[in-house]
Amino acid sequence: MGQGVLALDDHQHADDDGAEESSGPSPSPSRQGIQSVEIAMTVLLALEQNAGPASLTQVAALSGMQPSKVHRYLVSLSRVGLVSQSPSSGLYDLGPAMRRLGAEALRRMDEVGLASEYLPGLRDRTKHAVNLAVWGDHGPVIVRWDYGSYALPITVRVGATLPVLASSVGRVYLTHLPKTLTDPVIRAQDATFEQRLTDEDIEGIKAGVRRDGVAITSGGVIPGVTSVAAPVFTTGQSLPLAVAIALPARAATQAVLRTVTAELLETTKAMSVELGHHAPEPAASTGRTPAKTGRPAKHRP
């Protein structure tokens, strides 16, 4: 890359910044910003979206900008290490400074704390109790419980371990964790179950959770209580969290379940984005209310 090109880039980039910063009055001082920084972030997000090294043409297409403009931003981002360019292929990718920033952001992230901030809003919108769970050594563990407006017969205390097969939270983990983690827990818990599930039953549960995005049980842990649970995905190799809404079974009509499920999925999606998860485009919705299940079916010899 010639020195003359870099000089031209600097001149043009400076002109762009000046135009962007003086493009018009802002509604309030707190809302003022630098548009060129936001455009640079668009370029970085295009590199992330490409999921690998990208050409200038690809970055321009993904960011919705002209290649000449994108090139100027790539030059500046490369200088500070946020972008790197392969000397052999000429392709662009996220740079060493970006990797350091990402690693430090992950180190500082409190997944439970960040997810917990969404629970009061979910409770207030649905009026029902909500809880957050993590995967522990012996199964799902409740780490937060926010009470709703509707009284429940009893509640599950914070720190309690839930059954994998009989609870909605457990079924979320059953679906989204590898069998190497869930099978030993199931075997340990299985001796306490009055009813057993066949392998075919378990695969059917997992298929239903993947299809609907949620698990619903009624009376599986607390008699008279229906629970709807969904996963919260994180970044990297972290295990997912699970969020559940608990409501009286008598109130769990099809209409209520549709509303509660929609609110839960919207909230867990926002949580996942907050925790750095990048999800593929969802499949078209069937418009069907997820099936409500109770205690595990008996084993049929």
Q: Main β-sheet, in a few words? A: 5 strands, antiparallel
CATH homologous superfamily descriptor of the largest domain: GAF domain
Which overall shape is indicated by the principal axes computed on the Cα atoms?
Answer: elongated
- The beta-strand count equals 7
Report the span from N to C terminus: 73 Å
**What is the CATH top level name of the largest domain?**
Alpha Beta
Secondary structure: helix percent: 40-55%
Task: Spell the H/E element sequence.
Answer: HHHHEEHHHEEHHHEEEH
> What is the level-2 CATH architecture name of the largest domain?
2-Layer Sandwich
Mean pLDDT: 80
Spatial ordering of strands, largest sheet: 4-3-7-6-5
Q: Radius of gyration over alpha carbons? A: 25 Å
Uncertain residue segments: 1-27, 281-289, 293-301
What does this molecule look like?
The protein is an alpha+beta fold and 301 residues long. Helices cover 46% and strands 14% of the residues. The protein has a five-stranded antiparallel sheet, sandwiched between helices. Strands 1-2 form a two-stranded antiparallel sheet. A hairpin with a 2-residue loop joins β3 (129-136) and β4 (139-146). α1 (3-21) crosses α4 (67-79), α2 (35-50) packs across α3 and α8 crosses α10. The termini are far apart. The model is unreliable at 1-27, 281-289 and 293-301 (pLDDT under 50).
